[in-house]
Amino acid sequence: MHRILIADDNIANRELLEAYLIGVDCDTETSVDGQDTLDKIESFEPDLVLLDVMMPKLSGFEVCKQVKDNPATSRVMILMVTALNELGDIERAVAAGTDDFLSKPVNKVELVKRVENMLKLKGTEDELERLRRYIQEMEDGNDQIKPLDSSDDA
To answer: Which GO terms describe its biological process (predicted)?
Structure first.
């Protein structure tokens, strides 16, 4: 089952987003500020973070950049959800590494569809990574096998 972290300092926003996700097959967790979000990413290991930009302690931009710059968390999908919708804000979100951007007020149908698509993409990326590791293990194992020498048959 997928895990989604809802990061917003406003309790009403957190509750609304959680309610919107009731029909999505996922476990949810919430965080209340930027530092709490980083801590929860480490402990909860979400597949996707719904990340508010305007939060205390660390902004969503800062959280996103730290998550994407850290090899241990760089594959976590981030959907920034914010009232900021100026072109410069979108550019900052993209520069920080966000995977997608959604403006408030949030439309339930749009949120659910984006979340489902992002989770599907995350599942595909995870499977691709698993196959890459498997292929690498097989190639590494082949290095241990000595080729048969035709002169050994005699």
So the answer is: phosphorelay signal transduction system
